[in-house]
Design goal:
The complex is a heterodimer of chains A (313) and B (429). With 313 residues, chain A is α/β, with parallel strands linked by helices. Chain A has helices at residues 13-30, 54-66, 87-97, 111-116, 134-148, 166-177, 206-209, 224-227, 234-241, 245-250, 271-274, 281-301, 308-312, and strands at residues 44-49, 70-75, 101-106, 122-128, 155-159, 181-185, 201-203, 215-218, 256-258. The longest helix of chain A has 21 residues, at 281-301. The relative contact order of chain A is 0.16. With 429 residues, chain B is an alpha/beta fold. In chain B, strands 1, 2, 3, 4, 5, 16, 17, 18 and 19 form a 9-stranded mixed β-sheet that branches. A 5-stranded parallel β-sheet of chain B has the order 9-10-13-14-15. Classes of the chains: A alpha/beta (313), B alpha/beta (429).
């Protein structure tokens, strides 16, 4: 595996499977009364969050702590960053503290690549602008694999604001690597120019795609996109691209409904769909911790076994 | 003034000849010339003699951003690059939109003495795109401004652009447009295409440049005035300019060295060294720009030398300043992109980097043929040399060169400004 995890494209098929298998192993720890392993004792993980994202930060924090790493949370708000400190100076500060890994969430696409120039530790991308969010894609793949068995040949449909979605970019790359067939569905305004160069197919017609879908992933659509004329109204968006009970009824029996959160109930997903048994939305959150444990372990832990208790038994 | 005898240079890459420089002019061109008493003899075997280069598009940053560049440092860089004249862009602080500011820049250039500095005047006050600047006053000033541009900003208002084109006809001016439809490029970071889609950076679509050029060539035709298109970057723009020229309209265009050599694929590590406006485009665009420069559709190479301090580039891509420096590498880049590829010979290079830009800028004493009686503005260039670009040695105050670390052909050996050497043996005099 590479030293950093910035793009889902950094992962070979073997890398991705290793992370998913390791996460499967680590999931057992979560079911124990004492949810902690000594694996990363003495290592320091910094959560460097330039954007508010309590969910993702807590997920990484829990993952690092369950591996016994020391965790430093560095939030841009109220720090020297809000006083105009550059990313480089922040990086040099973290470097001086001896960070073994830096988990970065940033509003600018590519910020983790810049950070990687200035720190020696591993850089883990926890979402950068409209670029990527690779651990989200890993936890989505983990969730799908648990529910469906394998991903080879599965039809995955991702619906919504692809243009601005880091989740979509990472998922397209990772799911393709894992052998799934991805279809993107969106109004043409919310698809990037040159989307035809991505390893996936594209459709504007959700109803045509739904009956042959194994997993449907709904992306959050921000109402402010309406003001930039990406679509005429939230209601029209919802009618054409929202997942309501009628559309859910057209899905195959075994199909899953996913959402990376936070949801806009009543916009891209109806409440009854979000709360249905097909929905994996709560499960995705739980899987996030185990997958992030696996990533931190593989980037930092090196050769020691992930779960020493397991080895002993 | 000392006399010089340049021995055995290949004039415009053609026949070997001696050039005798006296009293600021080329006194004689011929074979086996004898040096006049006191003349210094320069052996120029293997060197090309080119007319002193003329840049239509240089950011000298003074007044206002002397931390990035000054007239002194920028013109030193120009001389080292083989330039004898540069046009200093108007987007300074304060903006060059009055006779006072353009005269100040012009005077700073004269005092520095490394090359001629011709200030470009802003088209609109404060380059804000609302009201015309006092174009006539700048034209009549000591600086004698003939090129007007809001470069960095597009004169997007069609009425204002029409009026500007009309107004400058009174004094032989030209409007140099930075073609960028503002609404189509809000937040734009990188050429819109495969790279911007993958990198998740807001796209700068080719159509935002092409639609403005299409409008402007029609306006220029309608009012029978002169339009110059700055830093053409797309294959579609080339087609529109070719069509406009075919109609006989007074349209000229420039291309930068970086758009002749580099593509948007370089953005893949988000290194803002490659962030520039207009953005680097695709290899298809590069091929079209080279062909257009070769066939004359694009008239000239202009550097768009845009110095920025280190901290403006050591950031996230979206936070970084746009622009790259280019004066000290322009000729090697053009050799690499145009001469080594067989698209242009050295006479062609002289035409695109000296004769034509001087004509567009209405400079009488620059861009003249290397014949007896011409002002002695000469660049001696060694095309056989090769080297890795080392930005740390640049005379420019800034280091934002996308060519640093590249191996490029050619080296400027000497530059003469009206018979006086500004550069000898590759070093400032």
């Amino acid at each position: 595996m590479k030293r950093h995890l910035i793009s889902a494209a950094d992962l070979t098929r073997d890398d991705a499977l290793l992370i998913l298998d390791t996460a499967e192993e680590l999931a057992q720890v979560v079911d124990r009364p004492i949810k902690k392993l000594p694996t990363l004792r003495g290592r320091t993980v910094v959560n460097l969050f330039f954007e508010d994202s309590t969910r993702t930060r807590i997920s990484f924090e829990a993952a690092a702590k369950r591996l016994s790493a020391d965790v430093i949370n560095f939030s841009a708000k109220g720090s020297s960053v809000s006083k105009g400190e550059s990313l480089k100076d922040t990086a040099l500060t973290l470097e001086a503290m001896g960070a073994d890994a830096v988990v970065i969430r940033h509003g600018a696409s590519g910020a983790p690549y810049r950070l990687a120039n200035w720190v020696h530790g591993s850089v883990v991308n926890a979402g950068d602008g409209t670029h990527e969010h690779p651990t989200q894609a890993l936890l989505d793949a983990f969730t799908m694999r648990r529910r469906l068995g394998g991903l080879e040949g599965r039809q995955i449909t991702i619906v919504g604001d692809i243009l601005h979605s880091r989740v979509a970019r990472s998922n397209v790359l990772l799911l393709h690597t894992l052998g799934a067939d991805v279809t993107l569905v969106a109004p043409p305004t919310l698809l990037p120019v040159a989307v035809d160069t991505w390893p996936c197919t594209v459709s504007y017609d959700l109803d045509a795609v739904i009956p042959k879908t194994d997993v449907i992933m709904m992306l959050r659509v921000q109402a402010e996109r309406m003001n930039a004329a990406y679509f005429p109204s939230v209601r029209e968006y919802s009618r054409r691209y929202g997942l309501d009970a009628r559309r859910m009824g057209q899905l195959p029996e075994h199909a899953l409904v996913m959402h990376p959160g936070p949801m806009n109930r009543g916009v891209e997903i109806a409440a009854e769909v979000a709360d249905s048994t097909r929905s994996t939305i709560v499960e995705q959150v739980a899987n996030g911790v185990t997958v992030r444990m696996a990533v931190l372990y593989l980037l930092l832990g090196g050769s020691v076994p992930a779960n020493p208790a397991e080895e002993d038994s | 003034m000392r006399a010089y005898l340049i021995r055995g240079a290949r004039i415009l890459g053609g026949a070997r000849a001696d050039l005798s420089l006296r009293d600021g002019v080329i006194a004689e061109v011929g074979d086996g010339l004898a040096p006049v008493p006191g003349a210094e003899v320069l052996r120029a075997d293997g060197l090309l003699a080119l007319p002193g280069l003329v840049d239509l598009h240089t950011h000298l940053r003074e007044p206002g951003r002397e931390d990035a560049e000054t007239v002194e440092s920028g013109t030193r860089a120009a001389a080292l690059g083989g330039y004898t004249a540069v046009h200093a862009m108007a987007n300074t602080d304060p903006v060059a939109d009055t006779a006072g500011v353009v005269e100040q820049v012009w005077r700073l250039g004269r005092e520095a003495g490394h090359c001629d500095v011709h200030p470009v005047g802003a088209v609109t006050r404060g380059i804000e795109g609302r009201q015309l600047a006092e174009l006539g006053a700048m034209a009549d000033s000591a600086a004698g401004v003939r090129v007007f541009s809001d470069d960095g900003h597009c004169v997007s208002d069609a009425v204002l652009m029409r009026r500007a084109l009309e107004y400058v006809k009174a004094f032989g001016g030209v409007i140099a447009q930075h073609a960028q439809e503002p609404r189509l490029t809000e937040g734009a970071q990188l050429n819109e295409g495969e790279m911007s889609a993958r990198l998740g950076l807001c796209g700068w679509p080719a159509v935002a440049e092409e639609s403005i050029i299409a409008r402007d060539v029609l306006l220029a035709a309608h009012v029978e005035s002169r339009l110059h298109v700055c830093h053409v970057s797309t294959a579609g723009s080339v087609e529109i300019i070719r069509w406009a020229k075919g109609k006989g309209w007074q349209v000229t265009a420039e291309v930068t060295p970086h758009h002749l050599l580099l593509t948007d694929a370089l953005a893949d590590t988000y290194d803002p060294m490659y962030k520039v406006n207009p953005p680097l485009r695709t290899s298809e665009d590069v091929a079209a720009l080279r062909a257009a420069l070769a066939d004359g559709t694009i008239d000239c190479v202009a550097t768009d030398h845009a110095p920025h301090p280190v901290e403006a580039k050591e950031t996230e891509w979206t936070a970084a300043a746009m622009g790259m420096i280019g004066l000290e590498t322009a000729l090697p880049v053009v050799q690499e992109a145009m001469v080594e590829t067989g698209l242009l010979d050295w006479a062609g290079v002289a035409d695109r980097m000296s004769f034509r830009p001087a004509r567009i800028g209405r400079l009488r004493a620059q861009g003249q043929p290397l014949t007896a009686g011409s002002p002695a503005n000469i660049t001696l260039y060694d095309p056989a040399s090769r080297g890795v670009v080392d930005a740390t040695g640049f005379a420019s105050k800034s280091r934002n060169s996308p060519f640093a670390g590249l191996e490029l052909p050619g080296r400027v050996v000497a530059t003469f400004l009206r018979g006086r050497p500004t550069v000898l043996e590759g070093k400032l005099t």
